[in-house]
Amino acid sequence: MGMRALMEPPIRPAEPGDSGARFAPLGAGGGMGLELERLRPLLRRSAGAILRRTEDIEDAVQEASMKLLRYGAREEIRIGSLEALARTTVRRVALDQLSKRRPVSREALEPAAPERAEALEAAEVRGRLRDAVERLPDSQRTAFLMVFQEGLSHEDAARELDVSAESLRARLYRARQQLRVWLKDLAP
């Protein structure tokens, strides 16, 4: 028997009626660490639903993993329930991080003078595009908005409009062509 086997806590076999095996309190380097590593992509997605910055997501996953390892060292956890516990823990950590952020001042959100001019120009372009889209015939405008604003696939939009996919593509082509004509002075 190796030294590592002597140091690791025993894994208990599943009891009748259990959905998964259990493991005894684990220290660093135990089976729980491997399970958490396997769950890492899932934890990133859960944290990413709340936090946006990659660094914040990684921090939340790391903090949740550490909490789970400390908890696993004290308590017995079912392998099957570890996923649910890990997701709940990472969500709570992410929400805590979000609530601890200091509010950003209005001045920090105001763009500097050159950026202000670009922001005004972008707002003008958006306004002109919005007006041009409103001028499109109903069938073209609806197809254009469903695909480019709502993000529906061509197939889903065609199904919603009760038209063939080819008909939808034709409407989108005509809409883009008309918008190019109306907005040609905006092209670089």
Name the features.
Arc Repressor Mutant, subunit A; 2 domains; 3 strands; disordered N terminus; 9 helices; 188 residues; single chain; mainly alpha; three-stranded antiparallel sheet; elongated
Quick structural summary:
69% of the residues lie in helices and 3% in strands. With 188 residues, the protein is mainly alpha-helical. The radius of gyration is 27 Å and the shape is elongated.
Can you give a write-up of this model?
This protein is mostly helical. The protein has 2 domains: about 20-100; about 105-185, Orthogonal Bundle (Arc Repressor Mutant, subunit A). Helix content is about 70%, strand content about 5%. It has 9 helices and 3 strands; from the N terminus they run αββααβαααααα. It has helices spanning about 5, 30-50, 55-75, 80-100, 105-110, 115-135, 140-150, 155-160, 165-180; strands at about 10, 20-25, 75-80. A 3-stranded antiparallel β-sheet has the order 1-2-3. The radius of gyration is 27 Å and the shape is elongated. Mean pLDDT is about 75; it is low at about 1-30.
What does the secondary structure layout of this molecule look like, with pairings?
Layout: H1 3-7, E1 11-12, E2 22-23, H2 31-48, H3 54-74, E3 77-78, H4 79-100, H5 106-109, H6 113-135, H7 138-148, H8 154-161, H9 165-182
Antiparallel strand pairs: 1-2, 2-3
Helix pairs in contact: 2-3, 2-4, 3-4, 7-9, 8-9
N-to-C CA distance: 73 Å
Give the assembly state of these chains: single chain
Strand content is under 5%
Percent of residues in helices: 55-70%
The major pleated sheet works out as: 3 strands, antiparallel
What radius of gyration results from the CA coordinates? Answer: 27 Å
Number of domains: 2
The topology string of helices and strands comes to HEEHHEHHHHHH
Q: Please state how the strands of the largest beta sheet are arranged side by side.
A: 1-2-3
Structural class based on helices, strands and sheet pairing: mainly alpha
